[in-house]
Design a protein that fits this description.
By secondary structure, this protein is mostly helical. The protein has 4 helices and no strands. It is extended.
């Protein structure tokens, strides 16, 4: 009677598979850490390796106008809520003026809509008649021999 691999062998194969999976996961995490570490500002191991091997370019100082426009040290600025400015209620004259402006805009929009409505009520234009192309002779020979 033929049987598959022994139980011990199957266990060792599964342990081996788990070990390979763990090693692959570790390699993936390490490569992600290095890749994402390259996004860091001053701590950039990828850039440092390229600069050390001569493949990368040394970090250059910015132009003078940039250095002059920035402070020497960037101090921590806490984020706080900025209070909105005090708003005064509208006066009766301002309200009447706003209402009149809205009426003018409404009348303008109504006139434009009426014009568009009139255009859509016109009869359809006459179709354009295009004369057919003349028939060409199909037994023509090419100009080149």
């Amino acid at each position: 009677m033929l049987q598959g691999p022994s139980r011990d062998r199957r266990l060792s194969q599964s342990r081996h598979s788990l070990r390979l999976l763990r090693n692959g996961m570790r390699a993936t995490v390490l490569s992600l850490a290095l890749a994402l570490g390259a996004c860091a500002g001053d701590l950039n191991p990828v850039r440092d390796v390229f600069v050390a091997t001569g493949l990368g370019e040394q970090q250059r100082e910015g132009p003078d106008f940039i250095a002059q426009s920035r402070p020497g040290e960037l101090a921590y600025a806490p984020i706080r809520r900025i209070e909105p400015p005090e708003r005064q209620p509208k006066t009766d004259e301002e309200l009447a003026e706003m209402e009149e402006e809205m009426r003018r805009v409404q009348q303008s929009n109504t006139a434009r809509a009426d014009g568009t409505r009139r255009l859509t009520m016109l009869p359809d234009p006459e179709p354009v008649i295009v004369e057919p192309l003349p028939d060409f002779e199909t037994d023509l020979q090419p100009a080149r021999p």
